[in-house]
Amino acid sequence: MKDDKPWVLDDPGRLKALAHPMRRAMLRHLGLHGPATSTTLGSLLDAKTGTTSYHLRQLEKYGFIEEIVERSAGRERWWRRVETGDIRLPLPAELAPEDRPVLAEFHRIGYEEDKGILLDLLPAAYEADPAWVKVSRGLGRMRLEELEAFFEEYIALMKKYSHGAADVPPGARPLYLRLLALPADLPAPPAREE
């Protein structure tokens, strides 16, 4: 990982760079499959090369990816994801009011990604390779300071057992890891219509 200090996305530009579905899909692809060109990403994401090039430049501008100069030639530029380590989000009150919609959009896109993992990928992954799928559901009671400590220990545990892209040992696989902690004593939301 980049370093142990959390990278707080309190810069509206950086936050906005990640609050875009195509950029997040590009980062996900680069993280899972390694370096790619804008042409490769364009064909995977059904987008024009000019569009993918623009989004790649935005990700580069804010330090999420870098060009692989030694692999690039002419107009073909190769990109890799930068290992950013522990990325944290600010609370809405820590942002200027005009920047809060970007944080809300960041969360909305993330929730959609997580919903896809839970509804589509989780059942398929379990069906294909159940030994690699671990799910835990529970109900705990904590004070806020205990929840904060629990979260920090979770991040430390994830770092302890995770390998960076440069040091992946044989047999290691990329895994989606999610920690979901939210109050269970809130009123139930209205039922969704399908």
UniProtKB/TrEMBL annotation:
Which terms are listed as keywords in the entry?
A: DNA-binding
By its UniProt entry, which CDD domains does this protein fall under? Answer: HTH_ARSR
Q: Where is the HTH arsR-type domain?
A: 13-96
Q: Which Pfam families match?
A: HTH_20
What GO molecular functions are on record for this protein? DNA binding; DNA-binding transcription factor activity
Q: What is this protein called?
A: DNA-binding transcriptional ArsR family regulator
Protein source organism:
Nonomuraea dietziae
